[in-house]
Amino acid sequence: MNSIGIIAPYKYEGMWVFDDPAVNLTREPFVAGIDKMIDRLVVHIPKAEQGFRLLFSATPFPGHNIKLEWRREESGGKWYYCPQFDMEGWLCPALFKYFEEPPTELFGQAEAKP
Q1: Rounded to 5 degrees, what are φ and ψ at 11?
Q2: DSSP state, 42?
Q3: Whole-angstrom Cα distance, residue 14 to residue 5?
Q4: Which DSSP letter does residue 93 get?
Q5: Which residues, 6 or more positions from 100, have their beta carbon under 8 angstroms from its beta carbon?
Q6: Contact 33/87 with Cβ under 8 angstroms?
Q7: What is the percentage of the chain residues whose pLDDT exceeds 70?
Q8: What are the domain boundaries of the chain?
Q9: pLDDT tens across 27-64, in order?
Q10: Cα distance between residue 38 and residue 53, in whole Å
């Protein structure tokens, strides 16, 4: 398992989604607050709705520009708090395709696709 993951979220039918054939996910949506965090995270990325790169890890890495802190469980997923935006968001059980155990912290970096 890699210590830094990468996905390429994009907008589909007005929602942030991503595809990851390596773990059998297609148009997996971000919902329940995570979508609003993404809106704020990518505000400076031109044409982010057409796709951007999102690196993520359970440990800090150089260049990360968002941090989420685990709060509680619900409906098989996990709620995380983002101090940067003072917001909570829910990550669905697809989280377990990338982590055996839910990380207490998640770090991410959003950047334009080349």
Answers
A1: -90, 135
A2: T
A3: 24
A4: G
A5: 1
A6: yes
A7: 98
A8: 5-112
A9: 999 999 999 999 999 999 999 999 999 999 999 999 99
A10: 12
